[in-house]
């Protein structure tokens, strides 16, 4: 059965199995964040493919000013700790979830200007499609809100509250993507052989401890996709691999200890 040590479940299956063992209240609290992580990494991806750098990358993008920030970190830690006990993972991935210290930033102090992003053409096109889909969904939600508002009993109007909350998130994302696309710098295809690695380059690296070869693409933080091997220039691994050449060895200090990689090849 899925979840046995003989057959490692997909990330989506693992999330469902874990939530099923929780009490009703705990399940309700945990479900949204665990399913969100599973969708972010890849619902159908085998749990065994999930590694520490991906978990750390997800934690990096969580908003430290979110009032539920600590709760979300705790929910994911419990999930990964259970995954280790269940045999889905060889290591406790919870050790890669390091909570960031909050900064004194007022919620109303959100900047209207987003720093220009350096994107691949593929990512630019993906964001343009996402923006179009979000605008369509926003229009649908307007109709849902109007329909739910027709119910005069506002004391327990869950559909109305849910639609308003979702539209609020969507409108924020629409604004964010619009600003990103407006100021984005598109990476031009490079014809010359790679010398020093840069944003948009793909590196084949060898883990000098395990001997495993991995493939990473260095991208802007807004383009991170751990399931596709796209790592942020702001992440420890991304910083270490940036500006490097074939054959170089890099060392990264991670929560689980020091990691050493040798760059086998840089592709453009």
How do the helices and strands line up, and which of them pair or pack?
Elements: H1 11-20, H2 24-41, H3 52-61, H4 69-86, E1 118-119, H5 121-149, H6 158-183, E2 185-186, E3 202-207, E4 213-219, E5 230-232, H7 236-241, E6 249-254, E7 257-267
Parallel strand pairs: 1-2, 4-5
Antiparallel strand pairs: 3-4, 3-7, 6-7
Helix pairs in contact: 1-2, 2-4, 5-6
Shape, please? globular
Q: Strand-and-helix sequence, N→C?
A: HHHHEHHEEEEHEE
Over the alpha carbons, how many angstroms does the gyration radius reach?
21 Å
Query: Averaged pLDDT, please?
Result: 80
Structural class per helix/strand content? alpha/beta
- Measured between the Cα atoms of the first and last residue, the distance is 42 Å
- State the helix count: 7
Count of discrete domains: 3
Helical proportion, percent range: 40-55%
Largest sheet strand order: 5-4-3-7-6
For the report, how would you describe the main beta sheet?
A: 5 strands, mixed
The low-pLDDT segments are 1-5, 103-113
Q: Report the sheet-strand fraction.
A: 5-15%
How many β-strand runs? Answer: 7
